């Protein structure tokens, strides 16, 4: 049996403890660095959204395994700013957004566009401005000195697109405050829901409302009785119904891999099942040059002083 001097024995014991400590630290680091593929969604109902998102997160994590991802995670954010912060700090990989929300994150450098998501079976929609059928409003300029109802500040079709169109026509828009209306401005208010906007127009409490063509045809949003008393004043060009964006920190080769994976999902039975659970998506398609140009227009408009800060 080998015997060591007290000095050597003490050194061996220290080395053994040091090696064990290194192994433990390595284990903790490996756990901390285990890559999660995280998909987000804006919602106030996490219990409903997580089961819809998790299958897609798991699927994409499996597909992205060659890049080191090991599992997927669904994340639900109660507001846009918290989702944007997660993109900025690199903890969120992808999420479904509207074109307006995507433009805000692209402008801020947090995200990049990935693909068009076919939402509710639709790849695109248009924004509408609706007036009372008996009104004397026939052109956008006729809205000067009038009132308009938008859904909310975060809506693409029922706020951002018509607001941008009106502003680019040269019309000035101001929040509705009190009863006095400036003849050279359009005065707007938010209603919180398409149904509320429709009721206000039907009751002649506003002169115009903004809706998507999808909501215009839904009887629970615009009842037939109300629709028959309205008239479409203006229709925008078609825009993507929804876009999938990804973290701007994700390397180019991974972006290309993700885009190819998403746009081919509908070609397999497994992919169709994942799509069906992911908010009843029909498929993903590549962003067209037109959609990219629209995104660029949104980003440029957000840089101007014509667009208001959130109320």
List the helices and strands and how they pair.
Layout: H1 6-32, E1 36-42, H2 46-63, E2 71-77, H3 80-88, E3 94-97, H4 99-108, E4 111-117, E5 124-125, E6 127-132, E7 147-150, H5 156-168, E8 172-175, E9 185-190, H6 194-202, E10 208-212, H7 213-216, H8 224-227, E11 230-235, E12 239-240, E13 242-247, H9 252-263, H10 269-277, E14 284-285, H11 289-302
Parallel strand pairs: 1-2, 1-3, 7-9, 7-10, 8-9
Antiparallel strand pairs: 3-13, 4-13, 4-14, 5-12, 6-10, 6-11
Strand order of the largest sheet: 2-1-3-13-4-14
Q: Kindly give the count of domains.
A: 2
Unreliably modeled segments: 17-32
SS summary, helix count: 11
CATH fold node name of the largest domain: D-Maltodextrin-Binding Protein, domain 2
Strand residue percentage:
15-25%
The gyration radius over C-alpha positions equals 26 Å
Helix content: 40-55%
CATH architecture of the largest domain: 3-Layer(aba) Sandwich
Average pLDDT metric? 89
**Element-level helix/strand string:** HEHEHEHEEEEHEEHEHHEEEHHEH
> CA-to-CA gap between the ends?
82 Å
CATH class of the largest domain: Alpha Beta
Per DSSP E runs of 2 or more residues, the count of β-strands stands at 14
| Apparent shape | elongated
Q: Which structural class best describes the helix and strand composition?
A: alpha/beta
For the biggest sheet, the summary is: 6 strands, mixed
Write structural notes for this entry.
By secondary structure, the protein is α/β, with parallel strands linked by helices. The chain folds into two domains: 153 residues, 3-Layer(aba) Sandwich (D-Maltodextrin-Binding Protein, domain 2); 110 residues, Periplasmic binding protein-like II (D-Maltodextrin-Binding Protein, domain 2, 3-Layer(aba) Sandwich). 41% of the residues lie in helices and 22% in strands. The strands form three sheets. A six-stranded mixed β-sheet has the order 2-1-3-13-4-14, sandwiched between helices. Strand 1, helix 2 and strand 2 form a beta-alpha-beta unit. The protein is elongated and about 60 Å long. The N and C termini lie far apart (82 Å). About 5% of the residues have low confidence.
């Amino acid at each position: 049996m080998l015997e060591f001097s007290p000095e050597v024995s003490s050194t061996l014991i220290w080395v053994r403890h040091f090696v064990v400590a290194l192994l433990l630290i390595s284990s903790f680091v490996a756990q901390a660095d285990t890559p999660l593929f995280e998909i987000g969604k804006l919602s106030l109902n996490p219990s409903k959204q997580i089961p819809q998102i998790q299958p897609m997160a798991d699927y994409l994590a499996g597909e992205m395994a060659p890049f080191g991802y090991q599992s997927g995670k669904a994340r639900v954010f109660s507001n846009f700013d918290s989702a944007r912060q997660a993109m900025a700090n690199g903890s969120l990989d992808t999420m479904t957004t509207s074109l307006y929300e995507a433009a805000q994150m692209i402008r801020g450098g947090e995200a990049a566009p990935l693909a068009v998501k076919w939402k509710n079976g639709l790849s695109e929609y248009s924004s509408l401005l609706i007036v009372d059928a008996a009104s004397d409003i026939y052109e956008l300029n006729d809205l000067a000195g009038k009132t308009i109802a938008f859904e909310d500040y975060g809506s693409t079709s029922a706020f951002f697109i018509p607001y941008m169109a009106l502003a680019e026509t040269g019309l000035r828009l101001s929040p509705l405050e009190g009863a006095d209306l400036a003849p050279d401005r359009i005065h707007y208010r938010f209603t919180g829901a398409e149904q509320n906007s429709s009721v206000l127009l039907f009751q002649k409490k506003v002169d115009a409302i903004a809706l998507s063509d999808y909501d215009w045809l839904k009887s629970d949003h615009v009842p037939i009785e109300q629709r028959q008393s309205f008239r479409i004043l203006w229709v925008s060009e078609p825009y993507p119904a929804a876009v999938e964006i990804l973290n701007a920190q994700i390397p180019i080769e991974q972006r290309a891999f993700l885009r190819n994976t998403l746009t081919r999902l509908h070609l397999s039975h497994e992919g169709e099942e994942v799509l069906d659970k992911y908010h009843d998506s029909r498929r993903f398609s590549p962003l067209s040059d037109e959609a990219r140009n629209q995104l660029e227009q949104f980003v440029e408009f957000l840089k101007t002083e014509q667009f208001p800060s959130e109320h």
